Amino acid sequence: MLGSDVEFKGSLKFEDDLRINGRFQGDLASSGTVHVGPQGDVKAEIAVGSAIVEGKVEGNITASERVELRSSAHMIGDIKASKLIVEEGVVFIGRCEVSSENVSTTVPVVDEAEEPEPERTEVQLGFGA
Predict the structure, then answer these.
(1) What distance in Å separates the CA atoms of residue 73 and residue 90, rounded to the nearest whole number?
(2) Which of 53, 79, 104, 124 could link 96 by a cystine bridge, Cβ 3.0 to 4.6 Å?
(3) Which one, of 57, 51, 82, lies nearest residue 72 by Cα?
């Protein structure tokens, strides 16, 4: 657990579960679960088994299992996961790719000059009355 008074910069690898209530900047990698609490403020590239976001995340999340954005979440970045859960009230700015196939949490290095621009689809989600 990184408490609300903790500020950490760098790369962090862990085995099971990590809860972040403070500030984190860098890279996170795990086959386990990262939980960004309501006071959590994360600027990172995240590659994990699962992610639960209640606070702020700026960066991309790649999860082999699932990503859950709870109502207080503020997510700026792309999500790639096998399952995505989004509660009412979430702020999400980015793209998401959800596939029932296993998602690799290793991010390959690709020369952008060789990669064609992906086709984009814009979707608006409406919640509430």
Answers:
(1) 5
(2) 79
(3) 57
In the chain, what are the domain boundaries? 7-98
DSSP conformation class of 5:
T
| SS3 state of residue 56 | strand
**Interval 83-93: pLDDT, tens:** 999 999 999 99
Query: What is the reported pTM?
Result: 0.77
**8 A C-beta contact, residue 71 and residue 85:** no
SS3 state of residue 10:
strand
First to last CA, the chain: 37
Reported as a single tens digit per residue, the pLDDT across 18-37 is 999 999 999 999 999 999 99
Residues of the chain scoring pLDDT < 70: 101-129
Strand pairing class (41-53; 23-30): parallel
What is the 3-state secondary structure of 58-120?
A: ECCEEEEEEEEECCCCEEECCEEEEEEEECCCCEEECCEEECCCCCCCCCCCCCCCCCCCCCC
